[in-house]
Amino acid sequence: MASLETTKNIHIQVQEAELRPSSINLMKTQEPSNFPPETTTAGQFLRRLFKLLFYLHLILITIFVIFLTLYGLIFNTRTHHFRPLEYYPPLLTAIGFSAIFAFIWQWMTSSSPSKAFKAAFWLSPLLTCTVGVLLIDISSPASLAVGVVAIVCAVIQSLYACWVSPRFDYAIRVLSVSTAFPPPKTTILVIQSISVSILYSCLLVSGIGRATATRSSWKALFIALILLSMAWTMQVIKNTLLVTVSRIKYMNLAFGTEIDTREAFRDTIKHLTGSICIGSILVPVLGVVRGSARAVKLTAGDTDEFLFSCANCYSGMASTLVMYGNRWGFVHVGAYNKGFVQASSDTWEMFGNEGLKELINSDLTGSFCFLSGVAAGAICSLVSGTWALIIHRSYATEVSIYAFFIGYFMCRVAMAWPQACVSSYYVAYAEDPRSVRFDLTIPARIEELRRFQA
Fold first, then answer.
1. pLDDT in tens, 376-392
2. pTM of the model
3. Would you put residue 139 in left (φ > 0), alpha (ψ -120 to 50) or beta?
4. How many CB atoms within 10 Å of residue 187?
5. Per-residue DSSP letter, 325
6. Residue ranges per domain, the chain?
């Protein structure tokens, strides 16, 4: 009887939504016949600036790595302390292994979303803890510190998985529904993206190895610059795939329009690289701020102690910042050629007007993709770290860390398309909840959350 009553309430809610005027529906952007131009002069300048900076950074980092490689070869012939045949194979293996894992994982997500989702949440803590044990076993001061951090992160991941486990069924349902019909040639896009990631990772691994060979006081700075370049570039590759798939999926859900995948990809590269570069910086930074704000607020609870007196202030600041930089904004970047900040603000406002804010805040798709990357990174770290530990113990710590980053970013690139599908599903629903292209998945969840709050 309770189930029948719940279903009846959902149908009544949907009918009421159809009868009342929606401010979002009145604001809804008309379907663009062609790729719409950016109309804001300031927006055009900012996007062109970041596009220029990104390509300039690629050129400079390539020249820098080539210089380091040549310098390292010369330096190596004088000191003989660096052993390339013992340093490079574990890292190159990590690159190949991460690519294979990324392909398998995105295939598993497509064919069996439920198994992939649960595996990410339960395997990631276990694998991260195993990496921590490996690093502690290496027994260097740096490895001990990183190993302890890894074990603490594994404990946090376990607690988080237990905390959010009641949301698994809904998250799996949304993931299954939104990825049921992926855009044509999605696999080709994933292959292309991972291939570019492999080539770029090989280039940077060469630079990291040669920076290690220099024994210079600048070595740490050189390696930090290379890793920052890897992080930004991999984010751009991931978000380029995300924007392309988001545009195709959103236009189909919102207007029933079919867009050629190759055309969408060309438009993304030609028109949207600047916005993607901006978003690739803002989203990770604001994500860290928002995550830390949640952690501080949970730790503070309802206490009024001085130590936690600013918890609410910090949380409010994080909530405001996320309005100007969130991954949902990539959908409108692709569909309407908006600047990233404007697109983020527009989508966040839509979620608020349609009562989706709480649902979006509790969405587990981002956590699923993040933990999938952590799992991939941990596997690569175990493979490469164990190899390095056996053949040259002094390389084991840094090889394990670099392999982790490679595996993490490679898997995140492969998981961009399911994240794009889920984002498009939510944004298209927020614009037109009455569309016949949506089932009762979201209304049912909203009704369930309202019952829990009552």
1. 999 999 999 999 999 88
2. 0.88
3. left
4. 14
5. S
6. 43-77+94-433
